[in-house]
Batch of 4 targets.
Target 1
Amino acid sequence: MKRRQFIKSAFGTAAVGYIGGAVGILFPDEAVAFSEPTGFWERDRIITFRRPDTGENGVIRHFSRREGGYLQDGYRQACWYLRDSKDNNSVAKMDIQLLNLLYAIQEWARMAGKTNPVMTINSAYRTRRRNAQIEGAALNSMHVAGRAVDITIRGIENWQVAEMAKHFNGGGVGHYNSFTHVDTGKLREWRG
């Protein structure tokens, strides 16, 4: 089994680990939401988001079992919303596993009873030119490859978002004071 494949049991494992007493991800009274994680990967995969830099708010639905799996229109829409809006609205092919990871984090919050856990996308795809202009950005940043986003989620602390992301073993997780970085590169974690 490859670690990037978000299989059905991935969520179940994280949920059971949480119910067993992992501290700090979500409040104890919210743990009851994880008693029925069945169907997590079979339901429509929806990401509710906002982009402060463009003023956009929206919903990305990139997967529907009823409609045959991954949705081409939803994927194209996701690529547009995750574009580099600061460099000529440049669009890239975003990693579908990144979209699955964003869905998983947000759906976990929904199942735990968080009302309207809108995901704020602070940075997603970056052109090489713009990435080079960002202080501290890695030369081979996963943002340049369409495999990273910097997010916050309404009602959830950034360190909690980072802890949730780590449970899915999707790639890198960086915890910063003002956002959480998630990517689909090698498994690693850091504090910025």
Target 2
Amino acid sequence: MENRTISIAFIRNMVSGCGLAPRYCDELLRRAGVDPAAIDSPQARVSPTQLSQLNKWITDATGDEGMGHYLRPQKRGTFNILARYMQTANDLQQAIERNVGFYNLFDFGFRLTLLHRGENIHYRVEAEYGVVLSNWVYEQLLMVNHRFLCWLTNSPIPLSRVNLNYATPAHSGEYHYLFFSDTRFNQPHCEIIFDKKLLKLPVLRSSQELEDYLSKVPYEFLHSNTRASSYTEQIRTVIKKSLPSVPSYDVLADTLGITPQTLRRRLRQEGCDYRLIKNELIRDTAIGYLLHDNKDVKSISYLLGFSEPSAFIRSFKKWTGATPKQYREQYGAAPRQESTTSKTSLIAN
């Protein structure tokens, strides 16, 4: 079971430009356990596995790794060839240069650029003149390529900042999960920025490791463990183990062996804060209980550290737009009558 949920907006944005018939898209959504009626809900939640399953199925159906979002299709197998080309690079710099040069051979409607600016490196995605790209293209290209580079070097490759040239989306609070970085919208360019010293990181993965990795794409992109050591993930782990008690900020910092001021700074660098992480963890754990456990709402509320069920119900409705009872009935099933075909989220623990 997974321990995180994500906004359904990521699925909505992916499906919206794929070019498949709406009826077929609805069939794929149901197959992944996502209620098509919830696709436009601003608060519905899904799992990373559901998103990766849909990614694979839409790619299979369209024969396009860009899933209809690029100016021209990216034929299946293109990424595999690129990945093998990058795997034989000596270091991060050469791997990125190969990545940029390879993509720019194709008429996808965008160009990649590697820029040196003082002590920083800018990996930038820009639309070709006259081409309008969806927000999904920018976030997908930056996230996937960053995570693959992290995997190749077996390093988190911490980002100094992420710039995006579109308006702040309603689900912007979830971008810290994509990049673990300070993410800013309405910027002149779409790019990830990191310290140029990291360009010397060696490419460590073997050819056999790469073949195993490619056999698990796109699941690997969304379940990258390169940021397992991030403070965001460490805090989720500490809170999870502490429930029903929730540690104070100062106690948490002491548990992690740093000062509260340092922790606050590190979280700011990851584009997050303690309150958001705490609420996300409790929300995701609650969803897991509601969909995969027969416990009643009162018991769940106490397991999550709420003094009264009413407080849990209010918080849960604020997070998801539904009461715990409504969420279980709509996306899971009533206890002892669970169905595996109508769930909007498959999260537990």
Target 3
Amino acid sequence: MFEVLIVVYIIVAVALIGFILIQQGKGADMGASFGSGGSGTVFGSSGAGNFLTKTTTVLATLFFVLCLVLGGITAKQKHEGESWNDLEAPAAETLAPAAEDVPAADQTPTDVPQ
């Protein structure tokens, strides 16, 4: 269920970004008032603006609802990293270094004549 909601969340987010980028700004209607052929479009002269605005509103609402649902699901999951709270477990033993682990500078050479 969680994975399906994540996929839907990503699809809604990408669609929301796309619909926001497709929309025109407030000053973009100046060309339509001078006869730039705005009435020959698929949605008419103002139909695309209403369609894009309504679609963006629906996608934004769906996006926020999915955010809240996914946040609620994630908050109820138990995390694996909380095992450090158990202080009754024995500590790991530390081993002393072996004699051959001593650095070479501290050893005296035995086969070099003095």
Target 4
Amino acid sequence: MRKENCFYLGIIVRKHSYKGEVVIKLDTDEPELYENMESVFVALGNNLVPFFIEKSSLHKGDQLRVKFEGVDTEADAEAIMKAELFLPLELLPELSGNKFYFHEIIDFSVKDTRHGVLGKIKKINDNAAQEILEIETPNQKQILIPLVDDFIVEIDRENKTFVVETPDGLIDLYLEDNHQKDE
């Protein structure tokens, strides 16, 4: 299994017992969906290694207490500490309406209610305080739009279209010809 075919589920944050149990911090709004998994992929070095789950239970809201097969001691648990966990993309719950996964909208066409089609989503930058849609226009310009719920009008999965209504002036900043340099 390769990372690009998977989604990030969480990270092992601490040991729970001397019998190899660990606690996973889940990256989800619905941790209960992942309480009864049979296995996960654990990132060890550059590889995703399947780990089978003997038992698991929700722990303090968004955490999952897990006993993996073959992880039977504190030393075994220590060896996988801080490892990231992944699951295949096909196991993601299907979203509808204006809810979406970042990977799902890559290459969607972006249409602004005032400016029409702007271009295609090339990336979602989630390294800042606010997630940002990175859109490439047909003439290779880049438009950045903050990913704010209030800006999203509609997500049309069938036609791969992402409709936004941006504040006055935001798109104009990118569409203006900047040939008005210092005179």
